[in-house]
Queue: 2 jobs
Job 1
Amino acid sequence: MTQSKVSHSQNEWDLLITDANIATMDNSIDQAYGTIENAALAIKDGYIAWLGKQTDLPAFDVFATPTISAKGQWLTPGLIDCHTHLVFAGSRAEEFEQRLQGVSYEQIAAQGGGIASTVRATREADHETLFVLAKDRLNALYSEGVSTVEIKSGYGLDCENEIKILEVARLLGENHPVDVKTTFLGAHALPLEYQGRSDEYIELVCTDMLEQVVSADLADAVDAFCENVGFSNEQTRRVFNAAKKHNLPVKCHAEQLSNQQGAQLVAEFKGLSADHIEYLDEAGVKAMADAGTVAVLLPGAFYFLRETKQPPISLLKQYNVPIAISTDFNPGTSPLCSLQLMMNMGCTLFRLTPAETLAAVTRHAAMALGLADRGMLKVGMRADIAHWQISHPAQLSYQLGVNKLLNLWILGRLN
Ligand code: DI6
Ligand code: FE
């Protein structure tokens, strides 16, 4: 009743959003969008203090509460890009040309191109240059409703430069509304100066490099590229053991180009996620399900490499492995800085439904980062909220090139 809403109760909210349709992505409401129509949502101190049917709004101080109308449009959780390599310098456009002429990604890597060429450019760049480059990319994601981004190192491949990349990632987090989580990916590729000495390089990653990263608190997780052009299963295990010593969660670039049992390995360490996974087999899927490891699909890399091997989507669903989707934004295999494009590709390339795809960039992406405070709109969660001019949440996966974002609150703040 209107009368009761005028009373001075304890419901002193910082903001009330009314007249909204909310895709909460809360799977205790339903298995699709967790929809609440004709809803309202209240924010207090950066977190969601109330949400539900507008007709059920409890008493609040109508004079003291800033209120905005969502005008019947949709709210979703802020989107989460859980796997990016956002901090690097240089371009790989020429390599793109070569690949179009038939040279493979592995051949280019073997010639000292590929990741190594980005490493050269990134080593030469200073903090400021890297910051400016990465900020543009972060802005692109942000403009499409992304409120949390994971950023990996991996283009430095020595102590000084891996630290530099992670420092830039931390600086971005401090100077941008988007919440940034960082991952140490020293085991991304073998630097040229260590050719033929990969065990020695892994030793460096596991000792000096990781110790410096940890003592400066520069990483929230540790990743490795377990692949025939990356590091062996045994070497990846050494990296994970080192991470475990420092209580850092692990994740893995696994089964992208071949099956190295990386997913089983990361599951053995109760890792956060196995990412790429085109070549994942049933044993790997089962291990992930048992460990609660999230499957991160990277359709941009699949598309850009013209991969034809599909990740085992039906097995993942059969075993109830949560599926996340991310840009994998990087200069070599996914120079595609749009999470909405990935949502579209999740549907068109991997045949996920738009509801599965939205869960993949919200609830499941949060799980892939080990973040229990976001990814759903629910009382007690962070007020990371995207407001869209759409008539149905499937539209987010459907239409490209027109930005439908109206507002993005991050920790309750509009920027
Ligand atoms: N897998 C990828 O797709 C990227 N890294 C990785 O481990 C590629 C990175 C690059 O080519 O620069
Ligand atoms: Fe990647």
Note: Residues 1-8 have pLDDT under 50 and may be disordered.
Job 2
Amino acid sequence: MALADKILRLKREKRAVVLAHNYQRPEVQDIADYVGDSIELSRKAMEEKDAEIIVFAAVDFMAESAAILNPDKKVLLPSAGARCPMAQMLTVDEIKRWRTHYPLLPLVLYVNTLASAKAYCDVCCTSANAVEVVNALDAETVLFGPDHNLAEYVQEKTGKKVIPIPERGFCPTHLLFQPEDVQALKAQYPDAVVMVHPECAAEMRKIADFIGSTSQMCKYAKENAAKTFIVATEEGLLHRLKKENPEKRFLLAYEGAVCPNMKLNTLERIYTALKEERHIVTVPEPIASKARKALEKMFELKIEKRLKRDNHCFEEFHTSF
Ligand code: 5XR
Ligand code: SF4
């Protein structure tokens, strides 16, 4: 029996759900119950009331968030080595140091942080809602970590002062994108629309037609009439974009833009993880409850804002997140 079929059978037997991040290998996305960004996936897991096991095909911090938001389920990370280097860049000691310097400023942490760091922040954000979260805060200056490019983007969009902590936290994969590669593709496809992830450097944001998270790119590509898109984010997203929009053309802005940690989750590892029920991701109390508060605050801030703007769009909040 093919490996994919073996996984599907085991999944049914064990009442497991496989969630795959947008950056997973195509064959992993294809056997998953849901494909999305980490928070979308964690929320999907919350809706799966009958599921006992969640196989979270992504990296460490994403599985941690799923475990925090789904304390009654067994969350498995198929590859124990799948760690996000950006999340490693902000330690608790570093946070404490900045907190001592700026005791009165709110600390906003991108979800790309470990649970131990989240436990020390006031509110979390994703790349999809960072601007809204910072806007909703009653403060003109905020501490923001760990991605300094996302911090800079949020500063531009909100007009608030956004202090990056650490000073230069970054995603090694998104920093590979260069404007010259996009310009070369543009010369070949002059009508192409350029979509850029906010973890990319400022020069990339300047040449973007659209800046957004992976989930926002999917939405934008579906709704935009253009036929060709140049995409500056991890290559895994192109599989989903092509699948959802078979009549459109998607070009990766730089062929080497691969997150090696995301790619550690192979079908073989997913099968073994499910069979042996490993590697179980747990977040000890009280870290989990503090981190959960910061995640829940993010959901609340966004709800309040939406409700203020339009009383009818509560549903929209859930689907567009
Ligand atoms: O770079 C990432 O880790 C991916 C991503 C995304 O756009 O999917 O930036 N993840 C964050 O937005 C976390 C949200 O789920
Ligand atoms: Fe981390 Fe970048 Fe990989 Fe996302 S793409 S998991 S931020 S290293």
Note: The pocket of iron/sulfur cluster (ligand 2) is lined by residues 23, 59, 84-86, 112, 171-174, 234, 259, 261-262 (CB under 6 Å).
